[in-house]
Amino acid sequence: MVLFLTSTLGENYIDENGERRACKVSRENGFLDNLISCVPQNGRGIIMASDPDSHVINDSVRDIMAESFEMSQIRLRELALCDGRNCGRAEELVKGADLVVLAGGHVPTENLFFEKIRLRELLRDFDKTVVGISAGTMNCAETVYAAPELDGEALDPSYKRYLKGLGLTQINVLPHLQYLRTVELDGMRMVDEISLADSFTRPFYGLNDGSYILIKDGAAVLYGEAYYFKDGTERQICKNGESIQIRCNPD
After folding, report:
1. Does the first or last residue of the chain, that is N or C, have fewer Cβ atoms within 10 Å of its Cβ?
2. Each residue of 62-112: pLDDT tens digit?
3. Is the pTM of this model over 0.90?
4. Pairing, β 219-223 against β 212-216
């Protein structure tokens, strides 16, 4: 399996009228070139939705991504969608796919959906390409770090910050780091007061948009600006335009 752990594909933008539009997949830090090299032309793709019941949003995500892939010279014969309407076909869809995209969204909601369709088992012997986006990236881990993101979650003692994931990697990722540094949740700074404290429990990599991790042939390479969080501290480990090899089993 080839695994991309990303914050975003950069495949859409908001226009002057507030409408979401397709654009080319990001070339930042060599992402598009690496993706093209791992996806066969005229292959089949499947997007696994983050919320099985958000049908309108899911259809929009699929349509925009299909348009973006075409603009970016990623020629797929089909880009299907798996959500609550056809989740009974999940096994068939995954078995026929050359590319599986795990959508972004709310981590616990997506985690429950993936558990319902037994995606962990379906991907166990999958030998093609998987791309995680934001929540999809976070749910790739064996033990998922589900950082709180909705009002009330940071203060809720019943909120589970650690979940059983897809088991595709031991690496934990906190995506959209540059944005989260500006966010306050339940009266606390998201990074400095919530996630930094959580790093005492499990270390994780903080990725800015445009940065990503590529795991291929048993090696993990991190591309772009990123930070390593562990034991209540953080340090920058890579800069934009650069790449480093990282351990597949972090301390």
Report:
1. C
2. 999 999 999 999 999 999 999 999 999 999 999 999 999 999 999 999 999
3. yes
4. antiparallel
pLDDT, position 147: 97
How high is the pLDDT of residue 250?
77
**Residue 216: what residue type?**
K
Alpha-carbon distance 140 to 162, whole Å?
Answer: 13
The CA–CA distances, whole Å, from 178 to 74, 168, 207 equal: 28, 25, 8
Sign of the alpha-carbon torsion through 173, 244, 99, 77 = positive
What is the amino acid identity at position 145?
Answer: Y
Provide the pLDDT for residue 70. 96
pLDDT for residue 249: 81
Backbone angles phi, psi at 227, to 5 degrees: -135, 150
Task: Provide the token pair at 204.
Answer: 């994780």
Q: Is 126 exposed, middle or buried (0-12, 13-18, 19+ CB in 10 A)?
A: middle
What's the CA gap between 127 and 131, in Å, rounded? 13
CB 211 within 8 A of CB 7: yes
Max intra-chain CA distance, the chain = 49
Q: Which two tokens stand for residue 135?
A: 């929540």
Low-confidence ranges of the chain (pLDDT < 70): 251
State the burial class of residue 160 (Cβ atoms within 10 Å of its Cβ: 0-12, 13-18, 19+): exposed
Handedness of CA 179, 185, 191, 195 (dihedral sign): negative
Tokens of 227: 């930070």
pLDDT for 169: 97
> How far is C-alpha 131 from the chain's CA centre?
7
